[in-house]
Amino acid sequence: MSHPRIAIMLPALLAGCALGPSPTAMPGPGCRATLVGGTMTTVIDFPSGFRLEGHWLVLGLGPPDGTVGDGRMVADLLLDNLAQADSANDAPTFLPLNTSLRLRAVGENATEALQQVADTWCNSILDATRRGIRFDRLIHATPGRVT
Predict the structure, then answer these.
(1) From CA 21, how far away is CA 15, in angstroms rounded?
(2) Cα(137)–Cα(6) distance, integer angstroms
(3) Could you report the average pLDDT of every consecutive run of 10 residues in the chain (147 residues)?
(4) pLDDT on residue 136
(5) Entry pTM
(6) What is the largest CA-CA distance in the chain?
(7) So what's the pLDDT on residue 91?
(8) 54 with 62: CB under 8 angstroms?
(9) Residue 27 to residue 1: CA distance in whole angstroms
(10) Using an 8 Å Cβ cutoff, are 61 and 85 in contact?
(11) What is the DSSP letter of 105?
(12) Got the DSSP string for 13-73?
């Protein structure tokens, strides 16, 4: 099942986001990211218990092209689905995106490069919620489960 509203909205949220240090932490949803094998999972826990996850495929993690020995690393990640759950105990419902999102960041090391991608994702979603976009309503309006 495709979700055109989500696919159109997410690239618009990320447009113009600078890949830099995250802004000062603000009260509200908490963000975290974990890397297991070739997948980075970003999780945003909202105070209501709603959880939004992004499951990113790590396309590349290494030195920038044309550089030798400066220590910088590039993270190149692809997001093609979201997962949502109403609470920490609920099994997530997966939602494929019509349009994949690809983010690339350069950091002083691999951890910093991956963190920049995670920060960009979380800050974009949090900015959208501050502007009144309700991800729980949007996703619940078009449910789908991928097994």
Answers:
(1) 17
(2) 11
(3) 39 38 45 89 86 91 73 89 82 86 89 88 86 67 43
(4) 65
(5) 0.68
(6) 50
(7) 82
(8) no
(9) 35
(10) no
(11) E
(12) HHTT---SPPPPP-SS-EEEEEEETTEEEEEEE-TTS-EEEEEEEEEEEEPPTT--SS--E
Say what the pLDDT of residue 7 is: 38
Question: Which residue reads 């790590």 in tokens?
Answer: 58
Dist CA 22 CA 96 (whole Å): 27
Please name which of 79, 80, 82, 74 lies closest in space to residue 114, comparing C-alpha atoms.
74
What ranges do the domains of the chain cover? Answer: 4-20+27-61+69-141
Other beta carbons within 10 angstroms of residue 27's beta carbon come to 6
C-alpha 32 chain-centroid distance: 10
Query: Cα dihedral sign for 4, 87, 112, 58?
Result: negative
Using CB atoms within 10 A of its CB, is residue 103 exposed (0-12), middle (13-18) or buried (19+)? buried
Structure tokens at 42: 């970003």
Rounded CA separation 147/130 (Å): 32
Residue where the block lists tokens 């495709």 = 2
CA distance linking residue 30 with residue 123, whole number of Å? 11
